Amino acid sequence: MKIFLVTGAAGFIGAAVARKLIDEGHKVITIDNLSTGYQDAIPEGVEFFKGDCQDYSVIKQLEKFTFEAIFHIAGQSSGEISFDDPVYDLQTNAQSTLLLLKLAIKTKCTNFIYASTMSVYGDKPDRPVKEDTELNPKSFYGVGKLASEHYLRIYSEYGIHSTSLRLFNVYGPGQNMDNLRQGMVSIFLAQALKNKHIVVKGSADRYRDFVFIDDVVKGFIKAYNSNKHGYKYFNLATGIKTEVGEVVEKIKSNLPFDVTVEFSGATQGDQFGIYADILKVKKELDWEPSVKLNDGLSKMVHFHQGL
Ligand SMILES: NC(=O)c1ccc[n+]([C@@H]2O[C@H](COP(=O)([O-])OP(=O)(O)OC[C@H]3O[C@@H](n4cnc5c(N)ncnc54)[C@H](O)[C@@H]3O)[C@@H](O)[C@H]2O)c1
Hints:
This protein is α/β, with parallel strands linked by helices. The protein folds into two domains: 3-170 and 209-236, NAD(P)-binding Rossmann-like Domain (Rossmann fold); 175-207 and 240-273 and 292-305, UDP-galactose 4-epimerase, domain 1. It is 38% helix and 18% strand. It contains ten helices and 13 strands. It has helices at 12-23, 56-59, 79-84, 86-107, 140-156, 184-195, 213-225, 244-253, 279-285, 293-305, and strands at 3-6, 27-32, 47-50, 69-72, 111-117, 161-167, 169-171, 197-200, 207-208, 210-212, 231-236, 242-243, 260-263. The strands form four sheets. Strands 3-2-1-4-5-6-11 form a seven-stranded parallel sheet, with helices on both faces. Strands 7-10 form a two-stranded parallel ribbon. Strands 8-13 form a two-stranded parallel ribbon. The radius of gyration is 18 Å and the shape is globular. It starts with a strand and ends with a helix. 49% of the residues are buried. The site of nicotinamide-adenine-dinucleotide has 30 residues, from helix 1, strand 2, helix 4, strand 5 and strand 7. Nicotinamide-adenine-dinucleotide is lined by residues 8, 10-14, 31-37, 52-54, 73-77, 92, 96, 115, 117, 167, 169-170, 176, 183.
């Protein structure tokens, strides 16, 4: 049995990755500070260490394990929140990565996968973004994630094979419906279910690339399996441009009641529009998204409606 460290397994993506590894018969350990995650969401069988990934006294407890791989997924995932407290953002998203890379060195774990983000790119012209485009993050969140990517690149020179997955807008069952400041689809759906009214911060013609959680989990597993040398980085997205207004309409059409919509204000540091070029990830990781937005949204709406 192999032992994996999956940070953030009380959260949306970490729980899904941990569940997949448990289902495959592995042992999974997680660190989570429950800042946005829930202890109940940690999949059964996962060994849980409560605490901050940026706290050495927490990380130190893991030095006794020999990890097959480390998936660093814990983090605060909102550009907006990074403006409230940029220092906390740096600690939670960048310092944590450094400490975990040091743990990897200490425990001789040579396989490290990181949950990075499309926010490392900043505003780009209206065409699919390739991985090697210039990086100009607009939020402290994007800066912290980019710093982490560079830590991975540097540590790869010391024997830690590492991969950053630049996740675009991930959605699906299990996404946090209580946090109205992170996750575009979950914010809209949560408002619709609670108030039958959606307030969209920003215009309807902004656009994103929405990728379903099951496809993202497959991407993490493929990255782990092919993480044999050096440092690599990939977009994890569908390559499909979808306007925000269109997502709102699709959510509405999946609900059995009427929902009103209001467009007002804006979110600090928000990218106007972004979608990915996914040729590199298709070719080098042999990964391809399989869930269409309509099908994914329908699964998510049914899951959360039933809660
Ligand atoms: N969901 C997306 O669309 C998306 C897009 C790009 C990148 N990401 C990245 O993926 C990761 C997971 O996102 P998610 O959507 O599952 O968010 P989430 O909030 O559901 O999960 C994050 C988990 O990490 C925990 N956590 C946060 N900071 C921590 C810390 N310093 N130490 C220990 N635990 C901590 C939280 O309690 C939570 O359980 C994040 O790093 C995020 O930046 C997510």
